[in-house]
Amino acid sequence: MTRSKNKRSTDYPNEQISVGTLMIIAAVASMTYNGVRVLPFLTISDAFLSMGALCLVLRMLVKPSHSRMIQVPQWLFYSLSLIIISSFITIITSDEPLVNLEKSVNIIIAAGGVTIFIGIVASNENQLNLILTVWTIFVAINAGIGLMDLLFDSGIGFWFTDEYWFGRTAGLTMHPNHLGI
Questions:
Q1: Which positions ≥6 away from 178 have C-beta within 8 Å?
Q2: What is the DSSP letter of 111?
Q3: Are the beta carbons of 12 and 126 closer than 8 angstroms?
Q4: Most buried one in 43, 66, 93, 102, CB count within 10 A?
């Protein structure tokens, strides 16, 4: 009997998921819920990402041999380079360079840092697929809340975010445009 080239979760019966990976899964699950905050400046996802980063740093300090680096794909390198260049141009031509600096750093961390971080933490294809599946499920939940708010005026999004957009719905995000992304 020939074994399939595609790996299934049953092919890794003793696979363990680290606390850091669980934190990343929780961060990815809550990533689109940027209207739900732990503190006024801290989203749920940011809190989980911070805890995941702390776990990763501790793992690197305690067991450096278990740490792994990933090769950054060229498409990510070039797209981040373009984001950095455009951010730099925006900052130096702006009337409010500090405001644009903060926004630029946030975009660079979100687009590149989180992507690379997920690549480092997910130790195999199964964990990466799990992270992507969790993200898809929770995006669908967010969209469902937005749809219920729109069609039935349920107020679920407003209850969690305290954000109201006249005639538009934002689900659990800060702005209706975020829900569309």
A1: 32, 34, 35, 170
A2: I
A3: yes
A4: 43
Per the document, the length of the chain is 181
* Predicted confidence (pLDDT) per residue in 123-159, tens digit: 778 888 888 899 889 989 988 998 998 899 888 988 8
C-alpha 31/C-alpha 48 separation (Å) is 10
Place of tokens 């107020």: 155
Tokens of 175: 């702005």
pLDDT at position 3, please? 45
CA geometry: angle 87, 51, 120, nearest 5 deg: 65
Rounded (5°) CA angle 131-135-141: 145
H helical segments located in 11-124: 19-29, 44-62, 74-93, 97-108, 114-121
- Neighbouring residues of 160: CB distance < 8 A, sequence distance ≥ 6: 33, 35, 36, 172
Query: At 48, is the pLDDT very low, low, confident or very high (cuts 50, 70, 90)?
Result: very high
pLDDT tens, residue by residue, 83-101: 889 888 988 998 888 888 8
Helix 114-121 with 19-29: angle, nearest 10 deg: 140
Q: Which two tokens stand for residue 145?
A: 């809340």
Residue 145: phi and psi, rounded to 5, are -65, -45
